[in-house]
Design a protein that fits this description.
It contains 7 helices and 6 strands. A 6-stranded parallel beta sheet has the order 3-2-1-4-5-6, with helices on both faces. Strand 1, helix 1 and strand 2 form a beta-alpha-beta unit. The longest helix is centred in the last third of the chain and has 15 residues. It starts with a strand and ends in an 18-residue tail after the last helix.
Length: about 190
């Protein structure tokens, strides 16, 4: 059984976190630990009103209060296979980049980095200024993976879900989880 922590911060686009949970919930060999930030509750209310918090938490195997700094995922002795923060606000990114753990998401991410476990950060902001970029570089330098939600169009997506699922598939790939969430590039023959 692989344990994956899913942190959903208060950034725009909570659908990326929800779709990631949906993909992971269908995998019998994955145990998910969800941390919903207080800001995520607001972004879900405004951007994903078709989803209730109860519906989202039901997708996870274990739910953690973001204020509980004594939760299992706050310790390196609690074995996990990695974490994704999806979406990741610039505030949360800054906390991770500077090991400033003000909530359970930033603490669990810090644990993944110090234990050399996979950490995927789906930074959601545009445009970016220098400090945003430096924080992304800091997380990368510490071993994290910065994976902005940038969809590929080679599969000719037809729906918003197709675009979102492309990023979800890339997240699962970065976590080392086999998936068929998106259409992979298979190459094309050159044309005259």
């Amino acid at each position: 059984m692989r344990r994956i922590i899913v942190g959903i911060s208060g950034s725009s686009s909570p659908i990326y976190g929800i779709r990631t949970l949906i993909a992971l919930s269908g995998m019998a060999d994955v145990e998910t630990h969800l941390i919903l930030s207080e800001g995520a509750h607001l972004s879900i209310k405004y951007e994903a009103p078709e989803w209730t918090i109860a519906d989202i938490t039901a997708l996870a195997d274990v739910n953690h209060d973001p204020r509980n700094m004594a939760a299992a995922v706050s310790s390196g002795s609690f074995k996990t296979d990695g974490m994704v923060v999806v979406p990741c606000s610039m505030k949360t990114l800054s906390g991770i980049a500077h090991s400033y753990s003000t909530d359970l998401i930033t603490r669990a991410a810090d644990v993944c980095l110090k234990e050399r476990r996979r950490l995927v950060v789906v930074a959601r902001e545009t445009p970016l200024h220098r400090t945003h970029l430096l924080n992304m570089l800091a997380v990368t330098d510490m071993g994290g993976i910065v994976l902005p939600p940038i969809p590929g169009f080679y599969a000719q997506p037809k729906t918003i879900e197709d675009l979102v699922d492309h990023t979800v598939g890339k997240i699962l790939d970065a976590l080392g989880i086999e998936n068929e969430t998106f259409t992979r590039w298979a190459g094309k023959e050159p044309q005259d």
